[in-house]
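F.,

This is the one I mentioned.
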């Protein structure tokens, strides 16, 4: 007897369900990874914008020899520590060809540390800043 089957067998249905569940699982993993990446990107963007905004404040604070400054900007707590490393006159070569530190400018080198805290996550930046002031 030659009988034709017009329905799926149980094994075929199980294999199709396995393929479907695998595709759904991989899609779910990809969506979670994308959402995590997006959250990190927004967090980094907030920190970066705040750091750039604080750059002008740091230039301003060095004029008054402030050593430490704290505050809150864009929901991010920040602390700025300023350390004066050195202060000297600019290097000048005289008529005799010998160089000396007796120029017309006083140059100050500062080390700045900026600590940003948001949602109990802390990011620290350190960099150097030079200021010059005409003395003659």
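My design for it:
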């Amino acid at each position: 007897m030659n009988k034709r089957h017009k329905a799926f067998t149980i094994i075929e249905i199980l294999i199709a369900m396995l393929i479907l569940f695998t595709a759904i699982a991989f899609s779910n993993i990809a969506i979670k990874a994308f959402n995590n990446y997006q959250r990190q990107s927004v967090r980094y963007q907030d920190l970066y914008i705040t750091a750039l905004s604080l750059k002008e404040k740091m230039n301003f604070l060095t004029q008054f020899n402030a050593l430490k400054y704290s505050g809150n900007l864009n929901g991010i707590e920040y602390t700025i520590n300023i350390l004066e490393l050195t202060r000297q006159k600019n290097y000048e070569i005289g008529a005799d060809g010998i160089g000396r530190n007796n120029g017309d400018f006083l140059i100050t080198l500062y080390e700045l540390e900026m600590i940003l805290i948001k949602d109990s996550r802390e990011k620290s930046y350190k960099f150097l800043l030079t200021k010059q002031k005409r003395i003659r």
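Residues 105 and 129 are 16 Å apart (CA to CA).

Talk soon.
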